[in-house]
Design a protein that fits this description.
The chain has a six-stranded mixed β-sheet with strand order 1-2-3-5-7-10, sandwiched between helices. A four-stranded mixed β-sheet has the order 4-6-8-9. The protein is 47% helix and 17% strand. It is built from nine helices and ten strands. The longest helix has 34 residues. Strand 2, helix 1 and strand 3 form a beta-alpha-beta unit.
Amino acid sequence: MTALAGPTHDRGITTLTLDSPANRNALSAALVGELTAALDDCAADDTVRAVVLTHTGNTFCAGADLTAPPDPAAFVALMRRIVALPKPVVARVTGHVRAGGLGLLGACDISAAGPGATFALTESRLGLAPAVISLPLLPRTDPRAAARYYLTGERFDAAEAARIGLITLAAGPAEDIDKALVPVLDGLRKASPQGLAASKELVTATVLKSFDQHAEDLIARSAALFASAEAREGMTAFLERRDPAWVL
């Protein structure tokens, strides 16, 4: 069974759909591999002007699949592929996003979320840290907000996500997210492939610099955290649906 549905095509826009409801679209090794391959296909296809990344179910991505996690280097390569793809990648979110899922959003060029979307960087509550996802997140997110949500793991809504720079636009309570995305997708269809690629290079240069300078260190840091006793307790407690030992 694949973890990715599609692709579907509509007037130059290719939609890739995270479709692994059994684990709430968590980042498994399979999902990371399939999404990377699909993006490679989009890059090589001259009929694709832009990519939309969306999901089935009420969760865009629950973070790392703790039962079948991807190799951290493979996940970093996926995020970098999104950033470096010579075609815009647009995230369409109507559900919950947790931990590593925010890394996917941070890597996308444009992200839109509906009123039912919620976000949280829950790593610190598991004895971990948002290590590798900092590569796309920190260059694009308000630093004060990043400090708050990295440290507390608090949940926040789409309006707050837009305010802090995590996403581009938040659809209002009575607004349809697809209607909100119409001017975005129409604008991408009107742009030339060369113009899009060159413009994307300009706006992603700082993010790519983050990957080139810090990826190796953060991959090692992530691996060390996952191997620690506190992380084992945190992940076990999560799977057992109980508080970890350090909760006061």
